[in-house]
Amino acid sequence: MQKRLTYLIFLLVFLVAGACHSKSGQRVNPGEVTSPTINRWVGDTGKIHSDSTEWKATKVPPMQNPEAFYPPEDENPSTPAQRESKPPEATAAKEIIEGKVIGIVDGDTFDLLSDSNRTFRIRMEGIDAPEKGMPYYQVSKKHLSSLCFSQRVTVKITQSESGNRMIGFTYLADGTELSHEMIRAGLAWHFKRYNDDPDLAGLEQEAREAWRGLWKDPNPLPPWEIRKIRKGGESTKELFNITEGQR
Q1: pLDDT at 144 (0 to 100)
Q2: So which residues are the catalytic ones?
């Protein structure tokens, strides 16, 4: 009888121990909190495709501020893929054009007939010469003509403007650069606002100290100031008392 009772107690302990296992097969210790199984989160996967099981998704609330989850676009893209393509005119920068000078507009501008039979208006890089109505306008224009009219030149383009207008340094066959020659003669200003060439700056200082060309006037009014006055609708005729040698 005692042996039978011992056997029953042993069997009872065995059954209680088996009941302490979770349905997922994990052992549950007294006082331990078990994590839900995958079936408890999403339902019984074995019944997903059952005709008797209805699968319902939980409705997700709309995002209140979607922009907050995305970084703002870079206003100044720095990578090649982000940069916008340049306009066609800009691709002509650093191009070389060769041809013949066929016209002189003023002391810093001339017309060039290229070898491809195209006509370009060339604005000389780094200088600003006297404009019409200013002292030394004709002197400057004539000096540029004596340097290059009807001559073959090579223009190294530094900037392309609209249409057939180009800005660049102009070289004669012997390597002489015309912007430098006009500054050297004292018949143009170094256009420092758009050019920082130290050689042009040095040549201008030499011409000023030697009182060459327009620097015979100790304080000549530069063309950009004249343009500003004219743009404001004022006349500049009374600003100059042009002598015969200044024409």
Answers
A1: 98
A2: 123, 131, 165
